[in-house]
Amino acid sequence: MIPRTSFLVRPILVLALVVMTLLSSCERVSQLTGLTGTVPVSEPQVIGPELLRVSIPEIGAQATLGPVARRDDVTVWQTLDGITLSLREGALIATRGLGDDLMSADVTGRIEMLRGDGGGQFYPHIRSYLDGEDRTVFRSYQCRRAEQDEMVDDGDSVLRRIEELCISPSDRFTNVYWLAPGGTMIRSRQWISPEIQYMETSRVPR
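The chain above was modelled as a monomer; its predicted structure follows.
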């Protein structure tokens, strides 16, 4: 059972689980996930024993999420009140129920970078949001590995710490990832949106 911890203090509408309806420039995001459906009002039906602890410092919120859907390398994590995070190999591709949601993100270059491909070169990163009139707005970034990898002692194992810098003409953000020796993402600090800012994730040991 997932602890009854809410992300937000204000009421939350139950939104779509993962609906990738994109313009042609981002159509492959939906092809990568292939996840559709709606979030149930009742307690989510988890599909595995693993848990993900998430905090959002900007709004002082935290929760523990369970996995409710999985397809290929994408996992959808959900709270009891219907908030979902969709992660591809640990990289954030969508949120629902937070307000200023990330509707979609193409993380192909990010995944290749985390696997050790790319050699520090810039790669494109496209994100989509909804504006005040519910129109899809795309934001394009150029990203690269920011600094040399750092090995961090996490108590039980040594993790590889990777920083990623993403820039656009109007803004920038820096994500941080901690990977286990096999490449599994154990912890992360990832940008969601200007209002929500960063989320911090940590896998809960079984």
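The first helix runs from residue 27 to 33.
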